[in-house]
Design a protein that fits this description.
Blueprint: E1 5-14, E2 22-31, E3 34-40, E4 55-59, E5 63-67, E6 69-70, H1 90-101, H2 106-122, E7 125-132, H3 142-153, E8 156-163, H4 182-196, E9 205-211, H5 219-232, E10 235-240, H6 244-254, H7 258-264, E11 272-276, H8 282-291, E12 294-297, H9 299-304, H10 312-317, E13 322-324, H11 338-348, H12 360-374, E14 392-396, H13 408-414, E15 420-425, E16 428-432, E17 435-436, H14 441-461
Parallel strand pairs: 1-4, 1-5, 6-7, 7-8, 8-9, 9-10, 10-11, 11-12, 12-13
Antiparallel strand pairs: 1-2, 2-3, 5-14, 14-15, 15-16, 16-17
Length: about 450
């Protein structure tokens, strides 16, 4: 039988709890899908006798154990268009790629989800999310395909069921044949919630309501989407304040900036999180802090598209929940969240706060507990504490890449990307020895390459 308890010993531990408790040499004990204990030194000896094969013991010498990484913003489908429009800003990039994205079908979306998930999970992500908003007509069950790929990978997952109802003929960016009507978008979103959302403590799949952005959705979709989410008891997600052009667009069309516009449509609150939030003034940040609205900080994508630097230190001081996001791999080709820990720290130090903007432990908190807050799951994941779900990562820090860095958290954040020796989701290994346990990486690579080539051919044919 499979081990019902996993005992990890002799490892450094960063719990990311409320006190940032750390152990230079400690233990973590997992019982089924929960964390049973964490502390210094060897694991406590249980008085009762257990069958030999009921306990798996792991020597964590040379490793740092942290909570699993939590990704708060992504677009899996973009895996199929990596490396394109590499010298474009956001608007030109969207204009260049929307005609291709509008040709997606269900097999392509499934393959893209597999590729995106594989890269994240092998790099320490235990909770993933996908904001999928491109639903060309007659292309199959795209939401179901994404959810199936996440289940196959064994990762905890939030699908932000996106939508667009403002095409080019209505002043939006996406082609008309890639958008839905207001009624069909709301109906499909509600159906996705009814079919897939799990509100339980140890849920593996949750759904959020996620109209895409002010550029691609109507005010009515935002308002009715918020009403739907609150009626169903799920969270709300969208893009916000990503570029200067977005602020100009909102002022011209709605007579107010993005934050005021979102508030007028019911889109501020503790059940809301927005991606990017780069161009926010003091009043905007205070509004997010006052309402508990969360932010998915995507430093690499914001740099790739020359969008700017989000004011993360100011957000944190204002009490804004902030997590990290990979964003789509057409604007962050690495597709890995652990690189965002380092980039968040470095890029924010280019802001007015300088070297005091973020430190290593704050960056780790963004990628773990901060992400759990943003997804509304901080009581369940994001820190290593007894009773929480067993989503953990063992990072190998005793190789040449980190050999002369004494502090393990500094080594993880400032140093080269650390190999993942073991990653647990719900107490089950999804990575062992640096390799995925549930799927074959080479098969996924071939499959995604084939689907990317097929999409390119279809797009060329128009």
């Amino acid at each position: 039988m499979a081990a019902s308890r996993i005992v990890i010993e002799n490892c450094a531990i960063a719990t990311v709890d409320a006190h940032d408790t750390e152990y230079t040499s400690g233990h973590v004990v997992v019982a089924d899908n929960r964390i049973e204990s964490v502390g210094a030194g060897p694991a406590p000896v249980r008085p009762e006798r257990e069958p030999e094969n009921a306990v798996r013991r792991i020597d964590g010498t040379g490793h740092l154990v942290t909570p699993g990484l939590v990704n708060t913003h992504h677009h899996f489908y973009q895996w199929l268009t990596r490396g394109l429009a590499t010298d474009h800003n956001l608007f030109n990039w969207l204009v260049a790629l929307y005609p291709t994205w509008a040709r997606l079908d269900e097999p392509m979306v499934r393959a893209a989800a597999q590729g995106s998930l594989a890269m994240m999970v092998r790099g320490g992500v235990t909770t993933a999310m996908d904001h999928h908003y491109v639903h060309p007509r007659g292309t199959g069950d795209l939401s179901g395909a994404i959810i199936e790929a996440a289940a196959e990978m064994g990762v905890r997952f939030t699908l932000a069921r996106g939508s667009m109802d403002r095409g080019t003929s209505d002043g939006g960016l996406p082609p008309d044949f890639a958008v839905e009507s207001l009624d069909s978008a709301l109906a499909a979103t509600e159906k996705t919630i009814d079919n897939h959302h799990d509100a339980s403590f140890d849920a593996m799949t949750q759904i959020a309501v996620a109209p895409c952005s002010p550029f691609s959705v109507t005010t009515e979709l935002l308002k009715q989407g918020a009403e739907l989410a609150r009626r169903k008891g799920v969270r709300l997600h969208t893009h916000g304040s990503e570029t200067v052009e977005e602020a100009q667009f909102c002022k011209e069309l709605f007579g107010m900036g993005p934050t005021d516009y979102f508030e007028s449509t019911g889109w501020l609150g503790p059940d809301v999180w927005m991606a990017h939030c780069v161009h926010m003034n003091d009043t905007d940040i205070q509004a997010f802090g006052r309402t508990g609205t969360g932010v998915a900080h995507c430093p690499s994508s914001n740099a790739r598209l020359a969008a700017g630097i989000a004011r993360v230190p100011d957000m944190l001081r204002a009490g804004v929940p902030v997590g990290l996001g990979v964003d789509g791999t057409a604007s962050n080709e690495s597709g890995e969240l652990h690189t965002e820990l380092r980039n968040a720290l470095l890029i924010n130090r280019l802001s007015a706060h300088g070297e005091s903007a973020l430190n290593a432990r704050q960056a780790l908190r963004l990628g773990t507990y901060g992400g759990a807050q943003v997804l509304g799951r901080a009581d369940q994941i994001g820190s290593i504490e007894p009773g929480k779900l067993a989503d953990l990562v063992m990072w190998k820090l005793d190789t040449l890449a980190h050999a002369s860095i004494a502090d393990p958290v500094t080594a993880l954040i400032f140093g080269a990307a650390a190999p993942v020796t073991l990653s647990l989701v719900n107490g089950r290994p999804v990575v062992e020895g640096g390799h995925l346990t549930t799927v074959d990486e080479d098969t996924i690579a071939r499959h995604t390459r084939t689907e990317a080539q097929r999409l390119a051919r279809i797009a060329e044919q128009g």
